[in-house]
Specification:
Helix content: over 70%
Mean pLDDT: 81
CATH class of the largest domain: Mainly Alpha
CATH superfamily of the largest domain: MFS general substrate transporter like domains
Largest sheet: none
Pfam families: MFS_1 (PF07690)
Main location: membrane
Low-confidence stretches: none
Radius of gyration: 20 Å
Number of domains: 2
Number of strands: 0
InterPro entries: MFS, MFS_dom, MFS_trans_sf, Tet-R_TetA/multi-R_MdtG-like
Keywords: Cell membrane, Membrane, Transmembrane, Transmembrane helix, Transport
CATH architecture of the largest domain: Up-down Bundle
Protein name: MFS transporter
Strand content: under 5%
Shape: globular
Number of helices: 17
């Protein structure tokens, strides 16, 4: 097997564990705070929201620093740093006894996070250009698989061994990722001294496609907002469709969420190959229009089954977006600046996730669910037009 292909598979395997560990936190964090003595629903919600949101915010602020460091020292060291740091943070979460302690560890977790974007940077640099879409589709699929499995694994382990032991087990899995990365991931990249002197302000003079890279980062920002704006209120939206005495609402909501994720998982690799064949621009534009249009009927359905089916169809379009975006970025970025450019793009994604999770709830509360679905639809379609006009 070629070295670059082995690196893709090792990174994908490690990404699965890292993504599983990150995604399993969200559903068990409120229960963890309840174990600590919080009984008021409002307080639990506030601490849960703050502890989740602070990680996205810190990732947004820290990503450019880690990106510049990766360009100076190499990308593999960033993977090692992130996997070890995340493992330590997961273990530390298991020792916390106060909400303030959890918030502090989650802040630290945001500072050391970045295994997936670092993997994207390394894969984009090491993979032959005609296979980049396929490679990024593979690691995107494994990242999504971990995100889908995380809540299920976290909930199961919490019931069987307790929440604290769950954090210890997840930390051990992340340590396995750390070991595999350190021993088996190969990197050919040799840092260039010139990169040390570059800042965001003077990158423009060294990057012939600077305006296109800015446009792509703006597209990432709009994508992240549109994807996360609906997620926090989906359970409430589904609850309104069901009889008041319905049991297992959380399970039903999870199934609707999973429908989109399953389709996205299976479509990421084929669409990644399509990116290699026809180019990322067409895949990105048509995927965004497709996903945007499918947001509209979701505003008017009155059946959970119909909603789940539409979101399943929508997942096929989402599977092509990030591989296309990342392939586009890689094609327009010199290898010696890949770490910096991908880190700025990661900052845009993280800020979009952060604003989307809060903004979607506010829009739904003030103007209703129909307005929110239309807003997300128009944002996706607007982003597609933005790419069509700004990128050639």
């Amino acid at each position: 097997m070629e070295t670059w292909k082995r690196t893709v598979y090792i990174c994908a395997f490690c990404i699965f564990f890292m993504s599983l560990g990150v995604s399993q936190v969200s559903p068990i964090l409120p229960l963890y705070f309840h174990e600590m003595g919080l009984s008021d629903t409002g307080s639990i919600a506030q601490w849960s929201g703050a502890s989740m949101g602070i990680t996205f915010l810190i990732v947004c602020l820290a990503a450019p620093f880690w990106g510049r460091l990766a360009d100076r020292k190499g990308r593999k060291i960033t993977l090692i740093r992130s996997s070890l740091g995340m493992a330590i943070c997961s273990i530390l979460l298991g020792f916390q006894t106060t909400p303030e302690g959890v918030f502090l560890v989650r802040t630290l977790q945001g500072l050391v996070s970045g295994f997936y974007p670092a993997s994207v940077t390394l894969i984009a640099s090491e993979t032959p250009q005609n296979h980049t879409g396929w490679a990024l589709g593979i690691i995107g699929s494994f990242s999504l698989a971990g995100s889908l499995a995380g809540p299920l694994v976290g909930g199961y382990l919490s019931d069987v061994v307790g929440i604290r032991n769950d954090f210890f087990i997840i930390g051990a899995l992340m340590l396995i990722s750390f070991g595999l990365t350190a021993m088996l991931v190969h990197e050919n990249y040799v840092p260039k001294p010139l990169v040390e002197k570059q800042t965001f302000r003077n990158l423009k003079t060294h990057l012939p496609e600077f305006s296109s890279l800015v446009a792509l980062s703006a597209t990432s920002f709009l994508y992240a907002i549109s994807v996360t704006a609906i997620s926090p209120i989906m359970t409430v939206y589904i609850k309104g469709m069901l009889p008041s005495n319905t049991e297992n609402i959380a399970f039903i909501s999870g199934a609707v969420f999973s429908a989109m994720g399953i389709a996205q998982f299976f479509s990421s690799s084929p669409l990644g190959k399509l990116v290699d064949r026809i180019g990322p621009r067409k895949v990105l534009i048509y995927s965004m229009i497709y996903v945007g249009l499918l947001n509209i009927p979701q505003a008017y359905v009155d059946s959970v089954y119909v909603l789940g089916f539409i979101r399943f169809l929508q997942g096929f379009g989402l599977g092509g977006m990030l591989p296309a975006l990342n392939t586009y970025l890689a094609s327009k970025t010199p290898k010696e600046y890949t770490g910096q450019i991908f880190s700025y793009n990661q900052s845009c994604l993280s800020m979009g996730y952060f604003l989307g999770s809060f903004g979607g709830s506010i829009v739904a509360a003030q103007f209703g669910f129909t307005t929110l679905f239309w807003a997300c639809s128009l944002t996706f379609i607007g982003a597609a037009l933005w790419v069509a006009l700004k990128l050639k």
